[in-house]
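Quick question, first post here. What does this chain look like in 3D?
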Amino acid sequence: MTSDEHLPELRASDADREQVAGILRDALAEGRLAMDEFEERLEAAYGAKTYAQLEPLTRDLPAAGSGIPAVSPRAAAPARPPSGWSGRIGGEATSRTGIAIMSGFQRKGAWTVPRRFTMFSFWGGGELDLREADFEAAEVEIRCISIMGGANVILPPDMALEVRGIGIMGGFDHSQVGVPHTPGTPRVTLTGFAFWGGVGTSRKKTKAARRAEAEAAREERRLAREQRRLAREERRKRLE
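> Answer (accepted):
Ran it through. Tokens below.
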């Protein structure tokens, strides 16, 4: 395949990007690419998501052959369906209540939030972590009853939240209301009441998301170091 139009929109792997980057480095060393063109293509290679984005970067280089070397889109595994929120809404609830009487409870990890979940805490505390959860419906209600106790709901950064609870010598946290959310995310509504107790909310990224961000930052630093090294080599060659 030699055309973007006929190349499947399959996701490229780290190995594919490194393979293209290697061809670009060889082309720079052979004088086929100028430094500014090399840097532009290298940045595009590391930012490419699909084969169609990678293929043009080496199309005019001898080592490129007819496309991405040693990687055939025809032989690649079928692309997985999108894994956004639409794939996490629907299904049967796995838990509908959480009770803490002079004790505590926790729901976290992979579980399915029902249309209505009831939290009750008396001289105790409960925690709901929604970051990795699926949802029975696009709109769910979490009813919190906290008597001389506490409850905490952890949401992902992009989830819609509404708080309608009532506090009597206690309170509901409204700090996470109005935070911009991604269209299509579930909407969570907190209701209930707190008497000498409190219901808190917070937003946190998953460990996987934090790891992905850290890896992306490391890759950016590595790319910057590589570009500086190649620039030094190019200046040295010009002085020889």
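The longest strand covers residues 139-147.
The chain has two domains: 4-78+210-239, 97-204.
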